[in-house]
Amino acid sequence: MIKLVVLDLDGTLLDPSGLIDPYTCTVLEKITRDGVVITIATGRPFQRTLLPLRENQVYPGSTFPQFLICEERDIYELQSGEYYPQLENSELHSQEVKLLPISHQLLSRLTEIAPSLEFAVNNSYSQQTRGFLELYFVTRTEAEEAVRILVDLSRATPLKVVRNGRNVCLRAKSSGKGEALVRLARMMKLELSEIVAVGDSHNDLAMLTCGVRPATTANADEEIRAAVARQGGYVAAASHSRGVGEILKHLVCL
Ligand SMILES: [Mg+2]
Fold this sequence. Notes:
The chain has helices at about 20-35, 45-55, 90-95, 100-115, 125-130, 140-155, 175-185, 205-210, 220-230, 240-250, and strands at about 5-10, 35-40, 65-70, 75-80, 80-85, 120, 135, 160-165, 165-170, 195-200, 215, 235. The protein is α/β, with parallel strands linked by helices. It folds into 2 domains: about 5-70 and about 175-250, Rossmann fold, CATH 3.40.50.1000; about 90-170, Hypothetical Protein Ta0175, Chain: A, domain 2 (Alpha-Beta Complex). The strands form 2 sheets. The chain has an 8-stranded mixed sheet with strand order 5-4-3-2-1-10-11-12, sandwiched between helices. β1 (about 5-10), α1 and β2 form a beta-alpha-beta unit. The longest helix has 14 residues, at about 100-115. Bound molecules: magnesium ion. The site of magnesium ion has 7 residues, from loops.
């Protein structure tokens, strides 16, 4: 029996318009009433995670999502209508900030090896507050080339490379949607087999392949659909938000 559902936000629960499909909202309300816990797992910072929930009138006032995983690292819990950070969030953030000098070294090496790559980097305020370096590429091909180089350069470091579309992040190995999801499962004393995770992109791969029941939507990257299918997961016929409704109806509703 499924007890926890973890949903990526952009490209998955949200339609390109930023809205949640009304049918999917109804299914989410139903499974919440049945006792299933809903969690959002996103690369967005906390405040920017609340924005689409507000726009969709899910927050404040709704009984879900009961947890948010923001920045692919920080866990927040809904208590009496408000989201409160877990105590370990600040410790994990500090650990990641300490790795910024190594990220900058890797960035310098990347520029030396591939001077023709065009990209922007998040500013130092963002690096400190979010805890990591994010590179924004003009094309996906360039982002993929940078990932190949950075993966090689980061091998002997405590860092990993995470791509989401045209953006590439240098993250602590303890960060990532998969790692955060495993922490949440431990906290809730759940087996991974009691969890469904849904995502559409490469930054979702870790949570889709960590032992939970994986699912994805029709709009997902080809490699993500292939990875989910390989594990016997569910690939929805519908895209984005409606695809999430289809997945929940298929895997969670009794
Ligand atoms: Mg996504």
